[in-house]
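User: quick one, sequence for these C-alpha cells?
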C-alpha cells in the first residue's frame, strides 16, 4: 500500500518543529501517526532504535494492544504528520485490508530488527566470556 498516496489529500495534518517530542515512553496511546514529511527518531531509553522517514507509521503498537507507549519519538526535523485516532484506525482496518497488512508488516519488521539487535547483544556477552542463560 502506498501510504503517501493514500493520505495525500488528508486535510487534518499536524506540523511540528524539529526537536518536538511527538510522544514519550509510558504515555497513553490514543493515536498513531503517518509521517508524511521530515524525519523522526524512535528511542527506547537513551537508544535510538529507528530513524523514521516518510511514509513511516509511528505509534501503531499502542493502538493495536491498548497499552502505554513503548518508545519516545523525537522529531529530527520539522515534520508533517497525520494523526489517526483509535476509531479512525478501526475504520481503516475494516475498509482496507491493505492498510491492516501494512501495519502488521511494519510491526513484524520492527520485531525482526529488535531480534537481530538482541542476538548481537547476546553474542557480545558470550564473546566477553559470559554465557547467556
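Assistant:
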Amino acid at each position: 500500500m502506498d501510504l503517501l498516496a493514500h493520505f495525500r489529500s488528508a486535510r487534518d495534518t499536524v506540523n511540528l518543529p524539529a526537536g518536538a517530542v511527538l510522544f514519550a515512553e509510558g504515555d497513553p496511546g490514543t493515536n498513531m501517526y503517518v509521517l508524511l514529511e521530515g524525519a523522526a527518531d524512535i528511542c527506547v531509553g537513551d537508544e535510538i532504535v529507528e530513524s523514521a522517514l516518510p511514509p513511516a507509521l509511528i505509534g501503531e503498537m499502542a493502538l493495536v494492544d491498548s497499552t502505554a507507549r513503548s518508545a519516545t519519538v523525537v522529531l529530527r526535523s520539522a515534520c508533517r504528520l497525520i494523526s489517526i485516532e483509535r476509531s479512525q484506525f478501526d475504520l481503516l482496518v475494516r475498509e482496507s485490508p491493505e492498510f491492516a497488512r501494512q501495519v502488521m508488516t511494519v510491526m513484524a519488521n520492527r520485531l525482526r530488527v529488535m531480534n537481530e539487535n538482541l542476538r548481537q547483544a547476546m553474542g557480545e556477552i558470550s564473546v566477553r566470556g559470559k554465557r547467556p542463560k
